[in-house]
């Protein structure tokens, strides 16, 4: 069986599985506005709730994850946001784009491979005044191994492929037809472990 036929079958199977198991997520993540796709869920009166309701302003004002409340909510470009206070809601309403997570709130490490997947509100960094979310501690550590180059890759794939695409179709495409620099979770874990060992082996620098 040719590689092309195998890849085509794999694409159909993965897409079918996604459609059968994630119809709600399919709708929530693709609102159709300028902020699409996004890492969102559907919840009660919110069809496209960003980052599971995390307060996106608190990342910048408190440098930590804070869960928002439906008591303080805003809608921007067809996406719903929750906040932990009226003050944070007011800050967002005054300048929404200042607080938006990069890459629709998806894991920045995944976007570097062209894959809009994952993104936990608790795992993040702030860099140059921008919020980057990750799918877990390993993803964050792997991304930080070469932060500037990884941001360059994420920016490229978001602009060229992911932004304004359908998240599920893009995900399947890049899981089957992987980018040249793709790394598995095991490969990333090995790279992180090697970097940590190297850091432990380096002699301490003299003070002063």
Task: Please give a structural write-up.
Helices cover 46% and strands 17% of the residues. The chain is of the alpha+beta class. The protein has one domain (3-135, 150-181). The strands form three sheets. The protein has a two-stranded antiparallel ribbon. A two-stranded antiparallel ribbon has the order 3-4. Helix 1 packs antiparallel against helix 8 and helix 6 (137-144) packs across helix 9 (185-201). 33% of the residues are buried.
Quick structural overview:
The chain is of the alpha+beta class. The protein contains nine helices and six strands, in the order H-H-E-E-H-E-E-H-H-E-E-H-H-H-H.
Protein topology:
Blueprint: H1 3-21, H2 23-28, E1 40-43, E2 46-50, H3 56-62, E3 69-76, E4 79-83, H4 86-94, H5 108-111, E5 120-127, E6 130-134, H6 137-144, H7 147-162, H8 167-176, H9 185-201
Antiparallel strand pairs: 1-2, 3-4, 5-6
Helix pairs in contact: 1-8, 6-9
DSSP strand count? 6
Write the H/E string, N to C. HHEEHEEHHEEHHHH
Mean pLDDT over the full residue set: 88
Strand order of the largest sheet: 1-2
Number of separate helices: 9
Q: Characterize the largest beta sheet: strand count, sense, and whether it forms a barrel.
A: 2 strands, antiparallel
| End-to-end C-alpha gap | 65 Å
* Principal-axes shape call: globular
Strand content: 15-25%
Q: What is the rounded Rg?
A: 19 Å
Low-confidence spans: 11-24
Helix/strand structural class: alpha+beta
User: How much helix is in the residues?
Assistant: 40-55%
Q: How many distinct domains? A: 1
């Amino acid at each position: 069986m040719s590689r092309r036929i195998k890849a085509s079958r794999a694409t159909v199977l993965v897409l079918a599985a996604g459609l059968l198991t994630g119809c709600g997520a399919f709708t929530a993540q693709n609102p159709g506005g300028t902020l699409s796709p996004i890492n969102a869920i559907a919840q009660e009166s919110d069809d496209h709730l960003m980052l599971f309701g995390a307060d996106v302003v608190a990342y910048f004002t408190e440098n930590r994850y804070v869960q928002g409340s439906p008591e303080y909510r805003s809608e921007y470009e067809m996406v719903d946001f929750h906040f932990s206070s009226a003050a944070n809601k007011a800050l967002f309403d005054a300048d929404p784009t200042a607080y938006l997570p990069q890459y629709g709130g998806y894991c920045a490490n995944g976007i570097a491979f062209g894959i809009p997947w994952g993104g936990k509100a608790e795992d993040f960094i702030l860099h140059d005044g921008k919020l980057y979310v990750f799918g877990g501690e390993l993803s964050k550590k792997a991304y930080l191994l070469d932060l500037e180059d990884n941001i360059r890759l994420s920016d490229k794939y978001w602009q060229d492929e992911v932004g304004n695409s359908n998240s599920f179709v893009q995900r399947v495409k890049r899981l089957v037809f992987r980018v040249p620099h793709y790394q598995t979770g095991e490969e990333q874990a090995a790279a992180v472990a090697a970097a940590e060992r190297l850091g432990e082996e380096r002699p301490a620098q003299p003070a002063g």
